[in-house]
Structures are given as C-alpha cells and as structure tokens.
User: What shape does this take?
Amino acid sequence: MRACTPWRLLNISIFVIIALLILPLYIDLGLRASLDHIEGRGTVGGIDFKAYYLAAHLLKKGEDFYDVKAQEEAMISFGLPLNDSLYIYPPLLAILFLPLTALSLGQAAQVWFLFNLALYWLTLAILVKSTDLDTLKEKIAPLILLAFLFVPVLFTLHKGQVNIAILFLLALICWFYKRGNLAWVGVSLACATMIKVVPGLLILYFLWKREYVVVWAAIGTIAIIGILGLIIAGPSVHHTFFSALPALGAPRPNPNNQSLGGYLSLFLIPNPFTGYILNNPLLWKLLTTSFSFLLLLLTLILCPRAEREKWDLEVSLVVATIPLVSQIGWVDLYTLFILPYTVLARYLLQRKGRRIDVALAASSFLFLNSPRLLDLWTNYVARYDWLLGNPFFLGLPFYGAIAVWLVLARMCWAKSEGVTSHV
Assistant: This one.
C-alpha cells in the first residue's frame, strides 16, 4: 500500500476541489449563462458561438454566410442583439456546426459549452502525456488547477469560442510528432488551419525544419477540405470570404485585443478606452508589420534546421508567437498558451531553467489573468470622461505574452548554441 505523503494528500485534495467545486461552477455557467449576451447586460456568453451557429444556419438555407446583411438579418430573426461579432472564419467551421442547427440556439449553446469543457479535459490529458509532464506526478494536480483558473480559457468557454478545439489539435500535433506519426501531424495541422487560419504558422515552421512529410500532408489535407468546402458551400461563398479578408487588416483598438497590433493601436489610433499618443494609422501599420516580421524571423532563427532535440520548446515558441502576430488577438486566443505553459512547467520543475525564467513565467501567468481587472478599469473610465485609460496599464496581458515568448526564446537559444552553425 502506497504511503500517504504530504504531496499525495495535496494532489488528492486538489482533485477533490476540482471535482466538487471548479467543475460544478463551470457546468453551472454552461447551463445558465452560455448565451447570456442576449440579455444586453454587457455579458459575453455565447457571443462568438452565435456567429458560428448563424453561419451554419445560413449555410443550411443556401445563403452566403459571409454577407454582413444576411448575418444581421439572422440575428434579428433569432431575437439577438446586433453586434460586430460576425462570422469571419474559413467555411469548415460553419460546415462542422451544421448538426447543431438541429437544436434550438439556447440548447446548442449549452451543448457547445459542455462539449468544449470535456474537450479541454481531454486536451490537458494529451498535453500531459505528450510533453512528459506525467513524469512529475506529484506536481500535476496543482498545474491542472491553474489550468482551470486560466482566464483566457474561461473567456473561451463563456464566449463559445473555438480556441479549445484549436488547442486540442495542437495537442494532437505534439502527440503525433513525439511518436513519429508525421502524416497525422500534417492532418491535425491542416484541420486547425482550416478552422482558424493562424495555426498555419506552424506549416512554415515544419517547412523550415525540412519536415516535408508534415508539410505535404498538411497541404494535401487543406486541398481536400477546400474541395469539400467548395462542393458544400459553393464558390460564391468562398469569393465573399477572400474579398472580406483585407478588411481584417484594419486597426482594432480595444483593451481585449492583446496582439502586437492591438496593443500598438491603443497608442496610435483614436479610441474610447485610452489617451492615445498619436493619431497615425500609417505609423501603426509600419510598426505592426515591422515588429511582427521581426518576431517571425527571430522565431525561425531560434529553431535550428538541423536540430530536433527539444522540439517541444520550438513548437511552444511558434505557438506563443501566433497570438502576438495575429491581427486580432482577443484575450481568449491566449488559451493556446496552455501548450507553452505545459512545456515550460516540465522544464522549470525539472530545474532546467534559470530563476529569471521562473519569475517571468509566473508573472506572465498573472498578467494573462488580468483581463477582469482591465474590464473593471475600462468600465470605471467610461463613467468618468476626465479620467483617461492608460495604454501602458491596459497592456498587461500583452506583457505576459511577451514574457512567455522571451523565456521560450532564451531556452531555445541556450539549447541551440552548439548547432547554430548548421542553421
């Protein structure tokens, strides 16, 4: 019989807390508030889910689900408030949502919430195994607890966002890559890309690493999904999609847009949230493009082409780059950071990092959990015209993302010092 050590007792206690307190709270939120944005109280329950559902509804009727007018008419017909949360994803997600249109909007929102909650559990289990975090059994329970307290995940679940599905596919990429199933890595990557585009950055990474099986499998799967999408949704819908893409390049100053471009827009684009420094959209575009390109270039440089050791650090670095260089990086997109945090947890708990790495990783977690504080602050500012929001303060999640990127970059650099001549 195993001895009941203090660590074992702590693990049991934490899992009991998760089972009896955390999960019931999440389930209650899913059953009670998965669509509460329709009440007009400033809440966001189901605000993104409804865009997916309505897109599938329009697809079912044979209409163009990218047409803004059609989406707004669908909102009105379902008794939903008009807002700018529209469907802007590739057609695959709308196609996958077709079965949910058999349910009412409210029932479908609940099913989607609970499905994502279960999928998050499965994703965490896959990440624990694929990153060898299970070798640190005594420390897994506290990490699982932190994963369920991660604010971007809560935002994703509440808004009905698709980020947990993307995180699941990223976890599968790690699972298959570790086992040498490169074709399935490409298939998983293609599915993630055809749902939300931004994971396609990993295709560039695998091309850089000369993992041609992954790249060709991804390209082939994208082609198959694209052809099926053309058959199901029709070419006119795809034409509307590609025509609307340039509009996504416009600045989106908002405290919840914590990408590099979103952060800079708080300084350089007039907005109701902050006292901007300059009204200079051209400078915003120049700085956003330049810094994004620099981040991408540094990411590739830090991933030596001839080196496959510690691939998990490299994949984590690429994943950490995705929300930063995305044009629109709402706080919930940082759900993807669960993968880098899982990898960093193993390395740091095995004492394979420096104290500064631990300090930066811990502070980043706190900063990425700060959006609720930001919401309170911006609501306070909105009530007092004389009190301007501080753009430096509103960038706390962005600073947290940069801290994670810096830790991963330093660790990738440290492990590649002996092979940089092969880059």
About this structure: The chain has two domains: 33-114+150-246, 250-423. Confidence is low (pLDDT under 50) at residues 419-423. Residues 273 and 382 are 8 Å apart (CA to CA).
